[in-house]
Amino acid sequence: MEDGICTVIAARNASQTIARAIHSALRDPYVEEVIIIDDASEDDTTQVAYQCDDGTKRLKVIRFDVNKGPAAARNHALDSSRAPVISILDADDFFIDGRFSKLMPVEGWDIIADNIAFIEERDGDNFDIGAVAAFDGLIWQLDLATFARRNISKRGVRRGELGFLKPLIRREFLDKHKLRYNERMRLGEDYDLYARALAAGACFYLTNNCGYAAVIRPDSLSGQHSTEDLAQLAAASEALLHLNLPRDIALALREHASHARAKYLHRNFLDMKTRNGLPAAVFDALADPLGFARTTRAIFLDKLDKLSRNSSTSSREGEVRYLFENGRINSN
Questions:
Q1: 5-224 has which CATH code?
Q2: Which of 17, 125, 309, 325 is most buried, judging by how many CB atoms fall within 10 Å of its CB?
Q3: Model's pTM, two decimal places?
Q4: What phi, psi does 187 have (nearest 5°)?
Q5: Which InterPro entries does this chain map to (predicted)?
Q6: At a CB cut-off of 8 Å and minimum separation 6, what does 182 contact?
Q7: Residues of the chain by 3-state class (helix, strand, coil), percent to 5
Q8: What is the pLDDT along the chain (332 residues), one digit of tens a residue?
Q9: In the chain, alpha helices (H)
């Protein structure tokens, strides 16, 4: 197929969910390859993946003996595939039937992404696709400043960062600009790749049609971030500041980098407190007065968040929320 798609699934200990993800990809006629990278799972993820083979020879399963992280897994899949278009699918999630028939006919893009439906784990296997809202198919172009600002999480607001997007990406653009995932990162590697692509001039379209279902799981690997993960995210965000970009874009990137650095400093302070006690943590943090101010503010707001979460109720069964509702994304 001239516009065939390779769906890449990086998986670790995903035996309970990966079959649903694989089947959702294999059902789509645009998909000519599905490449699974088992990132040194300690369960039977590889065996479950092999059992999903539908006989069309589109499924390829590769297992790492050593855990390398999602960025390395995706890069390996990219280099092992041949399709001209790449799509990323998390092992917890699944495509909604007909997704690519709405995205592929759009012309002129290097990257294109659609809306995401967030659903609770309890609803995943029995999810009613009819519950997904039918938006109007509005298409608009995403710019780097908006993208950066919409990846700054806000207190008291349910997560909606655009780094969650799972777009289609043209291989030709990635290869032309020598773009791959940053393998030092295990958090925010999607944000980093998309930001560098936009900085390289990618035409990145969004549509409010919804073709991707993200399953919210309390034990998801994406929710388990180490201090080193946060440090690498901060470093990658700060590296973007060295690019020669217009002032408004540079300002947005600086805001994101400051946000990422504050999250790292907060976690590092808590680690120091656990290891050496509060006085030692405060003494260490005071070496950077601005960083210390950010840390104390983050701790205070974190306490407020916990109080808010404790007083809130969980979402109702079958409730669906979306990365963005019907309408354009703004930078606020």
A1: 3.90.550.10
A2: 17
A3: 0.86
A4: -145, 130
A5: Glyco_trans_2-like, Glycosyltransf_2, Nucleotide-diphossugar_trans
A6: 71, 189, 192, 193, 232, 236
A7: 45, 20, 40
A8: 568 999 999 999 999 999 999 999 999 999 999 999 999 999 999 999 999 999 999 999 999 999 999 999 999 999 999 999 999 999 999 999 999 999 999 999 999 999 999 988 776 566 777 778 888 889 999 999 999 999 998 765 555 789 999 999 999 999 999 999 999 999 999 999 999 999 999 999 999 999 999 998 765 545 567 899 999 999 999 999 999 999 999 999 999 999 999 888 888 778 777 777 777 656 566 666 655 555 555 554 454 444 444 444 445 555 788 998 765 565 44
A9: 18-26, 45-50, 70-80, 99-103, 144-149, 171-176, 189-199, 227-239, 247-276, 278-285, 289-311
Token readout for 317 is 């069964």
Scan for tokens 């650095």, then name that residue: 261
